[in-house]
């Protein structure tokens, strides 16, 4: 197989009709993670290639490509995560996943369903495939690092943060839709919150090259500081948004410090 430096850039045609259909399904059922991937993959364009180029330009990214650690394997080893110190990044991730009854390979399954629906061909370059898979597998870690929950409000905020880190029209579409259909007031509190989450992502170092396997046993707060993630209380003085639904089925948010 040719060396990755000689491979042509990985570009995907954008399928707007399919993305719009997937967005309608996602709005009707926010648990359809496969539709999130379908939107993101359907509008990927040059997103993966841009992330790959940023990855290989970083010395840590180059090391990860040489050594090829399996982030999915590290996140799937619940016994190892449970043995990590209280207050560690790994324990916080495990607690988050157990609370949501989630597994690390759940993202893989949703990604595979979306790829099948889109008839997406496999990547010809193993280096780009490694980077793409790693970017996918770190999604839930970013929930922990940012403090954005796995409820609807947290998912939207995490995607806004992620869109700043790895720009993708699909992520932007989901965040934009979330801003429009979310709770409304005269101060535009909810859309401003999402803008702040995006700005927070812009202000953070590139998390795509973070050595997560080495960071998991370390104290969570030290990991956040080391990665340059602005503290949530500075970015969101009202607190972190948590999705709510009243007795009439109306959506809203509450703010948790």
Total strands = 2
The main β sheet shows up as: 2 strands, antiparallel
Mean pLDDT: 91
Please mark out the parts with pLDDT under 50 across 5 or more consecutive residues, or reply none.
none
End-to-end CA span? 52 Å
Question: What amount of the residues lies in strands?
Answer: under 5%
Biggest sheet strand order reads 1-2
- Radius of gyration, in Å, reads 18 Å
Helix content: 55-70%
Global shape: globular
SSE sequence, one letter per element: HHHHHHHHHHHHHHHHEE
The computed structural class is mainly alpha
Question: How many DSSP helices?
Answer: 16
Describe the protein.
The protein has 257 residues and is mainly α. It contains 16 helices and two strands. It has helices at residues 16-28, 33-42, 47-56, 59-67, 71-76, 78-82, 89-99, 106-118, 126-137, 139-146, 152-165, 169-181, 189-203, 212-215, 220-226, 232-235; strands spanning 240-245, 251-256. A two-stranded antiparallel sheet has the order 1-2. β1 (240-245) and β2 (251-256) form a beta hairpin. α1 packs antiparallel against α2 (33-42), α2 (33-42) crosses α8 and α7 crosses α10. The longest helix is centred in the C-terminal third of the chain and has 15 residues, at 189-203. The radius of gyration is 18 Å and the shape is globular. It starts with 15 loop residues before the first helix and ends with a strand. The model has no long low-confidence stretch (mean pLDDT 91).
């Amino acid at each position: 197989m040719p060396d990755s430096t000689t491979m042509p850039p990985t570009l995907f045609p954008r399928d707007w009709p399919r993305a719009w259909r997937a967005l309608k399904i996602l709005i009707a059922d926010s648990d359809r993670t496969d539709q999130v991937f379908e939107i993101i993959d359907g509008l990927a364009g040059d997103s993966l290639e841009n992330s790959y180029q940023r990855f290989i330009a970083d010395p840590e990214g180059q090391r990860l490509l040489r050594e090829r650690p399996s982030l999915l394997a590290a996140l799937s080893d619940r016994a190892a995560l449970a043995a990590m110190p209280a207050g560690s990044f790994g324990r916080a991730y495990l607690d988050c996943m157990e609370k949501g009854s989630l597994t690390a390979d759940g993202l893989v399954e949703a990604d595979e369903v979306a790829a099948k629906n889109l008839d997406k061909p496999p990547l010809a370059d193993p280096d780009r495939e490694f980077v793409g898979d790693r970017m996918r597998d770190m999604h839930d870690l970013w929930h922990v690092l940012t403090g954005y929950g796995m409820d609807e409000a947290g998912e939207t905020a995490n995607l806004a943060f992620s869109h700043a880190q790895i720009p993708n029209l699909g992520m932007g579409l989901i965040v934009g839709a979330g801003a429009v259909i979310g709770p409304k007031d005269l101060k535009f509190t909810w859309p401003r919150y999402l803008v702040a989450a995006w700005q927070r992502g812009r202000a953070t170092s590139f998390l795509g090259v973070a050595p997560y396997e080495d960071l998991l046993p370390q104290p969570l707060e030290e990991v956040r500081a080391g990665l340059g993630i602005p503290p949530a209380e500075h970015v969101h003085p009202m607190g972190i948004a948590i999705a709510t639904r009243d007795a009439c089925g109306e959506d809203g948010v509450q703010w948790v410090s």
